[in-house]
Amino acid sequence: MAVVTIPKLPPLSVQKNGKYSYIQTYKNCWDKEKKRSYRLPGSIKTVGKILGGGEEGVIQWSEEFLNQYPLLGELTAKRIFKGMKGSKKIFEFKFEPLDEMISLTQAVNLKKLNAGATWVLDNIIAATPVSTALTRVFSSYNRHRKLLSLAYYLYLNANGALHLYEDFAAHTRLPYQRPLSSGQISKLLKSISDDEITKFLKVLNLEQGKIEDANVGKAKIYYAVDSTSVSTYAAKLTPAQWGHNKDGDLLKQINVLMIVHQETGLPLFYRAYAGAVPDVSTVANMLKDHALVGMERTAVMVTDKGYGAIINIHRFLQNGLSFLTNIKTSLTFCKALIADNLTALLNECAIKRKIGCSCVTVPISWSYPITPGKRARDKAVLYVHIYLNRNIRYAYEKAIGDKTALIMEKMENNEALTDGEQNFFNKFIVKDDSGNYSLNASVKMEAMLDKGIRILISDCVSDPLEAWKAYFDRQRVEEGFYCFKQTVSGSRFRVSTDDTLRGKAFLTFLSCVIGLMFRRRADCAKIKGIELPYDSETKLIAALNSVQQTIYQDGGYYSEVVGKVKEIMEALDIPLPEPEPVDKALQQNNTEDEEDEPIVIEDLLTP
Questions:
Q1: Is 12 a residue whose pLDDT tops 50?
Q2: ∠ at Cα 77 (75, 81), nearest 5°?
Q3: What would the mean pLDDT of 389-410 be, rounded to a whole number?
Q4: Which 3-state string (H, E, C) describes 521-533?
C-alpha cells in the first residue's frame, strides 16, 4: 500500500441537514473585546459529505475541493467517534493511504455481487415484447425494475419465499439494486391492479403481433391452451375452492389457465380463477380475454379433451377463431365416424410412418347457432382426423384374450372367480345350446371400438399430419406449467389475501416467462449444433454466477470471463460483460422512490 503525505487542510466541521451530513470549511477570527474566536461570516463552504448521512463514516469530497487538495485523492478520509468530553461527543478526522490500484471513489461501498446469470437474463429479455410491456405499464416508482428483480429471484432460486429476497438482493447484481424488505414487497404486490395486468398482456401481444407481421408467408401460428391447479392452505382466498386437483393434493385449489405460443414456447396470456371451475367451462371467458388483450386472431387454438365439448366448438365458430381440439371418442357422432371408418383405419395402407398410426380424415358439415341461445344457425366445414394406434388396440385385444383364457382355466379347475372376473365373464362370454363357451363378438367389437383411437377436429387444419404435429407440439404449454409450478415455485402461491394473490400470480407468470426464454435460448444453441458444457439449467446458472461484479462509487466492473463460462455465453449468443457506469450500475441507490407507508406484513411472505 502506498505511503502518502496528508495535506494541510483548513478547519473542518459537520453540519447535519435532513438526512445528509455535510463537511464544511470555515475561517476563525479573534474577537479582542470578547476574547474568543468566532467563524468569519461568509467563510463557511461545503466541501463534501459523510456517506450514509450519519455522524461518522467515509467522506466523499467535492470535485472542487479535490482539485484544490489533490493528495486527498490518494487517501481514504473518515470521521470517527473519539470519545466523550462531559456530555459532548468528540469526533476526529482520520486519513489512511489508499491502495494505488483503487481510487477514492472506487473504495466507497466496494462490494462484490453474483452477476453472470442476471447479466445473461438482462441480455435475453432486452428489446423483447416482455421487456417492452413491463416498462410501459410498470415504470412508475421503478416498479418495472423491482418486479424484474423479484422475478429473477424466483427463477434463479426456485424459491417462492419472498421474505428471503432481501438477502439475495444484497449479494446479486439486479435491475433494481436496492434490497426490498418484506413490507415493501407486500406493498408492491398489492399495488398491481387487474387493469395493469390487462394492459401488460395487451402490450405483450401487440409487440408479439409486430413480430408475426414481419414474418410474411410463414406457416400457421398455433397457440396451446391448458390449465393447471395450484394447491393452497390459505383459508381466506376467494378463488381457493375444491375442484379436480391435478396434483392429487387433498387441498383447495386455484386454477391457472395459460396460452402459449407453440413455436417460441413463450406464454402470451394467463388467468387465475376459481378452483371449482372445470376446464370445459372456461372457454367462454377465455375467448373474451382473447379479444380483450388483442391476441392474434389468425392463430389456431390447440386444446385437449378437457375443452373438447360440442358447445365449445360452437363458441370458437361464433367468435371467428380457428381451433384444433382433441374431442372425446365417447360422443355419439364420434362413435358413428369411427364405426364408418374402422375398416379403412385397419387397412395397413393407411399407416403413416411419420406418426406410427393409421389415419383417416373426414370433412363434415357442422351446424351451429350464430349467436348463443338463438335459433338462427350457420354451417361450417370441419375436418375430423381419426387416428388409430395399432399397438394400443392390439394390447387391449390381447388383454381380453388373456383374461378369457384365465377365466376358462379357472372354470375347468372348478376354481372360484373374483368379482372382476365374474363381471368380465357375464359381459363377454356366452354359452351356446351345446354347452360350449365363446367370446361375444359384438360385445367385444363395441368394447374395442374406440381403443387406440384419437380424434382431432379443426375448422382449418385439413392435413392429418400437420394436425398431429400441432397437437403434440402443445406440449409447450406443459413445459410452461412445469416452469410455473416447479422452476419458479408456483406450486404454492404463499399468499393469504386476494389483492396479494393477484400480484404474486403476475410475478410468478413473469418469472416463468423469463425462465422459458432462457431455456429457449439454450435450445436454439443446441439446434445450431453448439454444445453447451452442462446438461441442465441449474448447472448453467451455477457456472454463470461464478462471474462477479465489483461495485464502487463510479460503477461496476466484472471478473474475467474465461473457460467454460465464456463458452456458455458465446453459445447463448450473449456479449461478454463490460464495465458499467454509475448511472447504470448504481442508479437505483440514488433514485427517490415513493415513500413507503406503514404496512402490516402478512405471513404470506414466510414459508
A1: yes
A2: 150
A3: 94
A4: HHHHHHHCCCCCC
Cα dihedral: 291, 296, 299, 302 (round 10): -50
> From CA 391, how far away is CA 388, in angstroms rounded?
9
Write down the pTM of the prediction: 0.76
Residues 71/2, Cβ–Cβ less than 8 Å: no
User: Using CB atoms within 10 A of its CB, is residue 265 exposed (0-12), middle (13-18) or buried (19+)?
Assistant: buried
Q: What's the distance, Cα to Cα, between the start and end of the chain in Å?
A: 48
How far lies 171's CA from each of 16, 164, 167, 177, 445, in Å? 31, 12, 7, 9, 67
β-sheet with 580-581: strand ranges across: 111-114, 548-552, 555-558, 580-581
**Mutual angle of helices 390-412 and 441-448, in 10-degree steps:** 140
Contacts of 150-154 with C-beta under 8 Å, sequence gap 24+, read 150/180, 150/185, 150/188, 150/507, 150/511, 151/488, 151/507, 151/510, 151/511, 151/514, 152/117, 152/118, 152/121, 152/511, 152/514, 154/488, 154/489, 154/507, 154/508, 154/511
d(C-alpha 384, C-alpha 363), whole Å: 6
Instruction: Provide CB contacts within 8 A for 404, sequence distance 6+.
Output: 424, 428, 429, 439
Rounded CA-CA distance 451/40 in Å is 101
Which residue's entry shows cell 380463477? 273
If one counts every other C-beta atom within 10 angstroms of the C-beta of residue 600, the result is 6
In angstroms, the CA 455 to CA 542 distance is 45
- Report the alpha-carbon distance of residue 456 to residue 385 in Å, rounded: 5
pLDDT single digits (tens) 113-165: 899 999 999 999 998 999 999 999 999 999 999 999 999 999 998 777 888 89
Q: Between the CA atoms of 510, 516, 517 and 519, what dihedral angle is there, to the nearest 10 degrees?
A: 150
Contact by Cβ (8 Å): 343, 337: no
Highest mean pLDDT among 429-433, 455-459, 540-544, 578-582: 455-459
Which residues neighbour 99 within 8 Å (Cβ) at sequence distance 6 or greater?
Answer: 1, 2, 107
Longest C-alpha distance within the chain, in Å? 144
Q: What is the pLDDT of residues 469-495, one digit of tens each?
A: 999 999 889 889 888 888 888 888 888
In the prediction, which pLDDT does 337 show?
96
Determine the pLDDT at residue 581: 58
* Residue from 146, 151, 240, 139 nearest 196 by CA: 139
Distance CA 101, CA 2 (A): 10
Q: Where do we find the cell 450519519? A: 54
Ranking 51-55, 401-405, 570-574 by mean pLDDT, the lowest is 51-55
Looking at every residue in the chain, the average pLDDT score rounds to: 86
Q: Are strands 57-61 and 267-274 parallel, antiparallel or unpaired?
A: unpaired
User: What is the DSSP secondary structure assignment for residue 295, as one 8-state letter?
Assistant: -
- 380 in Cβ contact with 362 (< 8 Å): no
For residue 438, the 8-state DSSP code is E
Q: Give CA–CA dist 508/513, Å, rounded.
A: 9
Average pLDDT for residues 541-570, to the nearest whole number? Answer: 84
Alpha helices in 232-303 (DSSP H): 283-292
Grid coordinates standing for 574? 450473449
At 580 the pLDDT is: 66
Grid coordinates in use for 570?
Answer: 458465446
Residues 6+ apart with CB under 8 A from 423: none
- CA angle 221/223/227 to nearest 5° reads 175
